[in-house]
Amino acid sequence: MPVDGWDFSWFEGRATEQRPSWGYARLLGSRMASVQSALDIQTGGGEVLNTVASLPSRMVVTEGWPPSLAVARRLLEPRGVEVVESGETDPLPFGDSSFDLVVSRHPIGVDWVEVTRVLRPGGVYLSQQVGSGSMHEVSEAMMGPLEIDHSRDPALAAEEAEAAGLEVVDLRAESLRAEFFDVGAVVHFLRKVVWIVPGFTVEEYLPQLRALYERIQAEGPLVAYTKRFLIEARKR
């Protein structure tokens, strides 16, 4: 199955995941309605942004992975969105104080200095991010016991945002239950969300997949927990 973009509809009936209580897409829509210019960093295929009914007069997105970039262009350019190719570690290709609002859903990393630079004074950064230890149970099912990397801690993100010149106005975190009802759903997930098991292929992990299949058959769904946090910060 193709794994381009961030459409997860394939999982219907095969896997479930709780959603954060704050409703990121709803927040995104409300913030977009009140600004003239906005930037969505690492938009993926633009699927989440495309749910926003009314976009600002200037709407720009960045994406660096070619398959997702193609999806974003197909979805968003007909709506007048400027789609810019930019890698996750590249400086943002925009001038200082360019945007009223900067958003990002599940960024691989955040360059807080660059975010602050492209925001106008009083502008807002809104982001839903993946917390430390997200889907740790899936990683361990494939790779064995692992230590959790705590570099995605919400408090650390807030500290880095403040150091870059932003004032954190909202910070929330939740642990959300996910279930995989068959091993095929696990395979599709690992092909799509590549950092859970770096370098994953069915061939290399066939023994672990067979063991997981037997486990699901005997015990029921594989249960894991996604970690999510919301951070909203204003440029001083």
TrEMBL record:
Residues 39-125 form the Methyltransferase type domain. GO terms for molecular function: S-adenosylmethionine-dependent methyltransferase activity. One of its GO terms (biological process) is methylation. InterPro entries: 23S_rRNA_MeTrnsfrase_RlmA (IPR052939), Methyltransf_11 (IPR013216), SAM-dependent_MTases_sf (IPR029063). CDD domains: AdoMet_MTases (cd02440). Signal peptide: none annotated. SUPFAM superfamilies: S-adenosyl-L-methionine-dependent methyltransferases. Transmembrane segments: none annotated. Gene3D superfamilies: Vaccinia Virus protein VP39. Keywords: Methyltransferase, Transferase. The keyword Transcription regulation does not apply. This is Methyltransferase family protein.
